[in-house]
Specification:
The protein is an alpha+beta fold. The protein is built from four helices and eight strands. It is 17% helix and 49% strand. The protein has an eight-stranded antiparallel sheet with strand order 4-3-2-1-7-6-5-8.
């Protein structure tokens, strides 16, 4: 879908409720309509792919308390690809790295569920100023995700947590 149409429809815009929640934390950096490159090679129940590359659009927000990245495919709806507090322990199979060129998320999906195999990555392609990067507590994060996160990311329907 052309960029202008996505912007007109609001696809990639941070939903108002999420924005309100994050504004109370002190937004350090906010980027909307961010191109996100998704890559998956591997196998999960219901999906096998070899070199699957897709383009999405989303939002990336850094606050004084956490990093949040969303993905959108329809107007006014966004799923969270990452929502990690800076003060949470660094553990889990998902690695997220912040740099001047954006946010890179990578995971060996077999570490999420032994029934999965392969690698999944997402790159939020947006410039993050050095002044912001020096403000955040760290540039590399590890996080744990449920198996449903992987399934939804690769396009397999999975129940959402209650």
């Amino acid at each position: 879908m052309p960029v202008i149409l996505r912007r007109m429809l609001g696809i990639g815009k941070l939903p108002a409720d999420v924005r309100a929640e994050l504004e109370s934390e002190g937004i350090l950096h906010l980027a909307e309509f961010v191109p996100v490159t998704f890559r998956f090679s591997g196998s999960v129940p219901g999906k096998t792919a070899k070199g699957n590359i897709r383009s999405y659009v989303g939002a990336l927000v850094l606050t004084s308390q956490r990093v949040v990245g969303t993905l959108s495919t329809v107007p006014k709806v966004a799923g969270r690809a990452i929502d990690k507090r800076w003060d949470e322990p660094d553990e889990g199979p998902v690695k997220a790295d912040l740099s001047a060129s954006g946010l890179a998320i990578e995971v060996d999906v077999s570490q999420v569920d032994p029934g999965f195999s392969g690698r999944l990555s997402m790159h939020y392609q947006t410039a993050i100023p050095e002044a912001v990067l020096t403000t955040v507590p760290r540039r590399s994060l590890l996080l744990t995700v449920p198996r449903e996160w992987v399934l939804r990311a690769v396009g397999v329907p999975a129940p959402r947590p209650a």
